Amino acid sequence: MSFFEIDGSEKSGSGTILRYSATLTSLLNKSLHLYNIRQKREKKGLRPQHLKAIEALSDITKGSLKNAYVSSEEIFYTPGKKILSDKYDFDITTAGSTTMLASAIIPVLLFAQNPSTIEITGGLFQDFAPAAHHLQYIVLPLLKRMKIDISLHIIKPGYVPTGEGKIFLKINPIKNFIEPINLESQGQIKKIKTVALSSNLETQKVSERMAKSFQNEIDKMGINIKSETDLIYDTSAHQKGASLTSWIETTTGCLIGMDVAGKIGRTSETIGKMVAKQLFEDFLSKSTVDRYTADQLIIYAALAKGTSKYIIPKMTEHIDTNLWLIQKFLNAKYEINNNMLTIYGIGYKPKQNS
Predict the structure, then answer these.
(1) pTM, whole model, 2 decimals?
(2) According to the model, what pLDDT value does residue 3 have?
(3) What are the structural domains, with CATH classification, of the chain?
């Protein structure tokens, strides 16, 4: 079996390199030697969520994994020869991101023979990771246009520092090929939607205050549209916490979203303002996806059969890293012209299904 040697200090030097390197080697059935893991992060090496991601992929393929433990800066991974559909249950054991773990697993289970379900325990809403609502309402609906059929249900919210939240995903296998996505024109705002979630904070009216602050901020910008808002007061979480996710639906079918989680010292009003400012920063750039969705779509566009095109708001380290990874592992070609990203998909189909 051939293998990949990957220096984890390249590009972003982040956990993204570990997760997607393991994902892509699982699909390609090639071994991976990854070293200098997360060299550009304050806490170098594997954190619990990164360890769980590669353990999950090894479990799904019945592969072998060496030197994998928290803080390890070098791992050796050989995937098994088959992608096994099943009912999976993964517990990160910390507030580590459930959505980032899901992002490593989903592309692989799309190419299993049968549907799979996954329950993941950990954090759902925190800084530096996509909110579960962002995945649910923005990324997954866009993937559906690529004939990727995934449903997500939030069982229980989880926040920093305790985690203990749960998401449930059902992943249906690709019937033939992933189809490309084309979002070449932004269009006009059709509607704005908002999900304002808070846990064990109803007496402080946190959900209402976040949503009101968001609306006040876009009113100040001269956006004369009333957001369709879902106020959620949860009592099932193990601690207090909050998250605001808002997205724009356009006349050309674009979904452009933004989310911010609560944390100590960050007021409800600050959260609302942050979401509004960042959301419209991306929208006013004339992009057709937001800065976070832009990097998440890359791996699917590279695996698709055909050419995908969408306009990114700006180059980020994660977009740059993911483009580097698809070229290195899949030899997928891409171009960027005036923020229009074009990805030439390779039409991936696994050997066991062909």
Answers:
(1) 0.96
(2) 84
(3) 1-82 (3.30.110), 83-175 (3.65.10.20), 185-283 (3.30.360.20)
